[in-house]
Design brief:
EC 1.17.1.8; binds nicotinamide-adenine-dinucleotide; alpha/beta; NADP binding; 2 domains; binds the ligand O=C(O)C1=N[C@H](C(=O)O)CCC1; 11 strands; diaminopimelate biosynthesis; 5-stranded mixed β-sheet; 6-stranded parallel β-sheet; cytoplasm; Dihydrodipicolinate Reductase, domain 2; NAD binding; Rossmann fold
Length: 246
């Protein structure tokens, strides 16, 4: 049995993770901790799952590493500088492992993978993400990561930046620029988590779309990460692509 603790346990995702862990034959939920709760009960866990807020996740993660607890992190906000900081905590011999994934949905991971593959073949590419209006961060972690992957794939293939003759009359009309890729964030009542990667070439458009219809859809990926993080060969894993053999 893998002993699991959850940080952000009263949140939308944290509560779903608690249910999923309780329903898994090979896991035991030993601690459920939210804001202002004592973190000490988490020391009974082997793996801690964090779905909290970008503003607090680094402090939580440092606490887990300092206490020798493996961590699976779904909270967003991990830019390259934050990832470097986490790497700096994980030097030295054996110690806890960390897995950080912007999206645990299997289809979302495949969407990012296919977008990365397609990006060098098209002159233009933009990302549109749509989420529920209670989401505190924008653009989404998934859109940010997709843009990074798409930009890297284009740079490696020597593809020029997407053409754009816009002279901006209104601030931010073209969305956020992540590594030269435009990302548009929509917040809509009724939405959960959705993303389109729109690619344009010579006389053709190609759209890759993924829709999360509920938060249960993220749970197979979260449980897989909990099972794999303990014996991971790398101290830090980003994304669950490698766990899926991609
Ligand atoms: N990786 C994925 O697949 C995935 C999927 C959905 C959401 N997310 C991300 O997960 C995060 C949480 O999303 P949500 O919709 O569950 O948010 P939420 O606001 O519903 O839940 C966050 C919870 O964290 C708690 N919290 C705040 N500070 C805390 C602290 N210091 N210690 C412990 N708990 C604390 C809050 O009280 C709240 O209960 C966001 O960053 C979101 O983007 C990731
Ligand atoms: O609901 C959220 O918040 C989500 N956050 C992640 C992101 O920012 O990409 C994953 C999708 C849902």
């Amino acid at each position: 049995m893998i002993k699991v603790g959850v940080l952000g346990s009263r949140g939308r995702m944290g509560a779903e993770v608690c249910r999923a862990v309780q329903g898994a034959d090979d896991m035991e939920l030993v601690a459920a901790v939210d804001q202002d709760d004592d973190r000490e009960p988490l020391t009974a866990a082997e793996v801690v799952v964090d779905f909290t807020r970008p503003a607090v996740v680094m402090d939580n993660l440092k606490w887990c590493v300092d206490h020798g607890l493996h961590a699976v992190v779904g909270t967003t906000g991990f830019d390259p500088s934050r990832l470097d900081t986490v790497r700096s905590w994980l030097t030295g011999g054996k110690g806890p492992n960390v897995l950080i994934a912007p999206n645990f949905g299997i289809g979302a991971v495949l969407m990012m993978h296919f977008a990365q593959k397609a990006a060098p073949f098209f002159e233009s590419v933009e990302i549109v993400e749509l989420h529920h209006p209670n989401k505190v961060d924008a653009p989404s972690g998934t859109a940010y990561r997709t843009a990074e992957l798409v930009a890297a794939a284009r740079a490696e293939a020597g593809v020029a930046p997407p053409p754009d003759a816009t002279t901006e009359e209104f601030d931010r009309a073209r969305g956020a620029d992540v590594d030269g890729i435009h990302v548009h964030a929509v917040r809509l009542s009724g939405a959960i988590a959705h993303q389109e990667v729109v690619l344009g070439g010579h006389g053709e458009l190609f759209t890759i779309r993924h829709d999360s219809m509920n938060r249960e859809s993220f749970m197979p990926g979260v449980l897989l990460a909990v099972r794999k993080v303990v014996d991971a060969s790398d101290r830090l894993t980003v994304g669950i692509e490698s766990l899926l053999g991609l």
